[in-house]
Amino acid sequence: MTQGQFAVAVAVVATAVTFVQVVPQIVRLLRIGRTEGASPAWAAVGMVINTGWIAYVIAEQFWETIPAVLSAVISYGVALYLLYRNGAKVRAGVLSGIAVGVACVALQLVAGWTVLGTVLGLSNGLYLGPSVVAAWRSYAPVGVAPMTWVLTASEGILWGFYGVLVAAGPIMVYGSTAFLCAALVLLRLWITRHRIRAALAEPS
């Protein structure tokens, strides 16, 4: 197997993880209907950032990554709707998403695709970061699905490795920031695990 073929195989596995990454969060919002610790900005900005990634990977011809980012756009959109339906305040998150979208378009027009891709990689923290903040600010983040963040950490490792294999700096940055942010959310969930259990045990 050549390095190129191995890179494609890694991308396929990463794509599979990305397809299901947000599903546990969607299921949790449907099942318990609680949003404590879950961030609307994570969903709104995540949808916009992944739309930017679609444009970038098409321009740079990383065709095998398109299904992953397309599924991410849809998943984040569903999560945003469920957060809104369950009573979360989504206005600020939506406005943040719009602002990020406008900035991405302007940046591409001024600086080109390579710079946009690098910024998108760094901007991974723009939508994962609010989840870190929301989880750490919540006394008992019952609205956060742990498996989504386990998958996010796994996705970060896989896409980071793919970026190394194809020498794509923006994808390497994306993977490393995804892993770091996911690790911080999981740490908060572990620290507050007893509070989360107690909150879930309370009668509705």
Describe the structure.
With 204 residues, this protein is mostly helical. It has 10 helices and no strands. The chain has helices spanning 3-20, 23-32, 40-59, 66-85, 91-111, 113-122, 124-137, 146-165, 169-191, 193-201. α3 packs antiparallel against α4, α3 packs parallel to α5 (91-111) and α3 packs antiparallel against α7. The protein is globular.
- CA distance, first residue to last residue: 55 Å
Could you name the ranges where pLDDT drops below 50 across 5 or more consecutive residues?
none
Question: What does the largest sheet look like?
Answer: none
Number of helices: 10
Percent helix, as a range, is: over 70%
Q: Can you write the helix and strand succession as a string?
A: HHHHHHHHHH
Percent strand equals under 5%
Backbone shape: globular
What is the strand tally? 0
What is the structural class? mainly alpha
- How much is the radius of gyration in Å? 17 Å
Mean of the pLDDT scores? 88
Give a nutshell description of this structure.
This protein is mainly α. It has helices at residues 3-20, 23-32, 40-59, 66-85, 91-111, 113-122, 124-137, 146-165, 169-191, 193-201. Helix 2 runs parallel beside helix 4, helix 3 (40-59) runs antiparallel to helix 6 and helix 8 packs antiparallel against helix 9.
Describe the protein's topology.
Blueprint lengths: L2 H18 L2 H10 L7 H20 L6 H20 L5 H21 L1 H10 L1 H14 L8 H20 L3 H23 L1 H9 L3
Main attributes of the structure:
204 residues, 81% helix, globular, mainly alpha
